Amino acid sequence: MAVREITYREALKEAMREEMLRDETVFLIGEDIADPHGGSYKVTAGLSTEFGLDRVIQTPISEQGFIGTAVGAALIGRRPIAEILYIDFCTMAMDQIVNQAAKIRYMSGGQAKVPLVIRTQGGMGRSSAAQHAQSLEAWFVHTPGLLVAMPSTPYDAKGLLKTAIRLDDPVIFIEHKLLYNTKGPVPEEEYTIPFGVADVKREGRDCTVVATSRTVLMTLAAAETLEREGISVEVVDPRTLFPLDVDTIVASVKKTSRLVVVHEAVERCGFGAEVVAQVAEKAYGYVDAPIVRVCAPSVPAPFARQLEDYVMVDEKKIADKVRRLVRGEI
Amino acid sequence: MNAKNADTTVETPPEDLTREQLLGMYRRMRLIRGFEDTAKERFEAGEIAGFLHLSQGQEAVPVGVCSALGPRDYITSTHRGHGDVIAKGCEVKRMFAELYGRATGYCKGKGGSMHIADFSQGIIGATGIVSGSLPTSVGIGLGIKQRGGDEVVVCFFGDGATAEGGFHEALNLASLWQVPVIFVCQNNLYGLSQPWEKTAYKCDLVARVATYHIPGECVDGMDVIAVHRAARRAVERARSGGGPGFIEAKTYRFLGHYVGDPALYMPAEEREAWRKRDAIVKLRGQLLAWGYLTEAEDEAMGAEVAAELQAGVEYAKASPLAAPETALEELYVHFDYLGNPR
To answer: What is the DSSP letter of B112?
Structure first.
């Protein structure tokens, strides 16, 4: 297969473009997405020029309105990809996401299908402060009726987004503002990635680290450092938080007998808590050390760089935690 | 029904509606009233669980509107939606089955009174979140427009929704995109226990909606013919590409917000005055005066409606309960509730 290096941003755009060419019911809707602006993070740049403003519908600042519009269109068989600029703004559309999109199929006794994708982005690292830097994925994982994807690489971003667009269930597709410029290998040929299949990003013997989104990259860097110290880390990226590939995580923990869970979101009741609970239940007796998390402390994201750095997960914090765990210091 | 309560304006029979159409509307209104009276009785007898938000008094609005729709048109509804979905075509037996938690109910016992849907008839569900259906209705309208269809969407909601943000966002987008959505406000004068006149400073919905450049009219919601005519105008305009429309139907909720609500906030004189304006009584008087209905035919229709309701309750009670484990089904198309691929 021919493979080239492209950015996470380009990978996402390719996924949308290919699916728009393949299926005329696919359309984009959201704020700032049309040319010449082409998206707040330029992910949709060029698509309105190629497909026209009927298929790339730029909206006023009206999250409840346009997310509801996307839900309604999906209910009669259209395939909207709605974009919420920052995951923080999903609060303005939570009724449509949680009470409508997630529930209609179930409460209609299976009559409805909601082939909806909501793309959004979260995460710290740009001094965006408390209302533009959250990681709210746990809210959606906690809501029955939604699927949640959180890709860490260009390859995963493209393959998962294509799958999301083809599914008949509502998907919350969470990108990271500091991943758009990252590069990685992506095949020229078409491919998709199924939901519910984790990817072991690095194999290792001493400790399993389950990480999501940008913290996968941080963990891989930490694993390099630790390898030189003689600590072998296995990095598991769930890729979709629901469905969650518990089997791959459990198999890894049974092999390494240690588990660290990493995410940017605040610790309390974060996605990591679910991973820990699953492992406690399914790999009890195989774990030889405390199960620990590396997350943001449960405070809002602060503005000033030194404050944000203090709370934000990074490579060093991950390496320190794994090192101490493997050395029996925790 | 007691004819002496009728506040009937006897005119000549309308030229735009046939006898059959009018009798059909009358029967449908009686069926809705009977369904809700029966549901209330069965609820109070302890046979039905949950909440019942009833709409006795409002029947002319959904019947007047839905009689202007075709089978491919869509409606969305609310927690107080029994009348809306019966008016669009739901069968009372499958509605009773839903209220009784049976496998044969429209939603197989998962939705209940507040969420009855029949996608095969364009009944895209009822939401229990006030104003929740307004933005989704815009989306149905947008989808129709995208595929070049000539269907329309009617979005039913109450006056309570008009103070929600979703109302304003939906009107703005419907107007911006000129989608074929008719917003029908059933103004029954109460949102929960809050009287309409305490909802906004100088309430004038048609004027408010006009600021979004959406044409609207205010009609007597106790006059099914007036409602029907307003709906027909809005439907024709929307169907021919004229964009969204708005109808405020002034009506009244004879009972409280839910069964069990003593409704102490609704003054007795007010309730009495509106009861005297019962839309079903009004239409009955008109039909008798126009020679479209005899007393005997009226009685026969009443017996037929009662039999349909009785049969509906029996169908529900004879149907199997939704099996407990079906609570785990039909959450996703592609996965089971645990996320395993199907």
So the answer is: -
Q: For A20-32, what is each residue's pLDDT tens digit?
A: 999 999 999 999 9
CA gap A208, A231 in Å, rounded = 11
Burial class (CB in 10 A: 0-12, 13-18, 19+), B16: exposed
Domains A3-187 and A199-326 share a fold: yes
Say whether residue B165 is in contact with chain A using an 8 A CB cutoff. Answer: yes
**A166 interface with B at CB cutoff 8 Å:** no
Query: Do the strands A207-211 and A259-266 form a parallel or antiparallel pair, or are they unpaired?
Result: parallel
* Average pLDDT value for residue range B208-237: 98
Which residue in the list A10, A19, A31, A63 is annotated as catalytic?
Answer: A63
Domains annotated for chain B, with CATH where assigned, are: 19-326 (3.40.50.970)
Q: Which of B323, B341, B322 is nearest to B332 (CA)?
A: B341
Q: Which CATH class is domain A199-326?
A: alpha beta
Identity (one letter) of the amino acid at B47? E
Please report, for chain A, the start and end positions of each structural domain, with discontinuous segments joined by +. Answer: 3-187, 199-326
Residue ranges of chain A with pLDDT lower than 50?
A: none
Q: Is the pLDDT of residue B3 over 50?
A: no
Mutation target vs A (from B172, B179, B331; most A CBs, 10 A cutoff): B331
The complex scores an ipTM of: 0.96
Domain A3-187 has CATH 3.40.50.970: yes
Cβ within 8 Å, pair A60-B135: no
B-chain residues within 8 Å CB-CB of A73?
139-140, 142-143, 146
Single pTM value for the model: 0.96
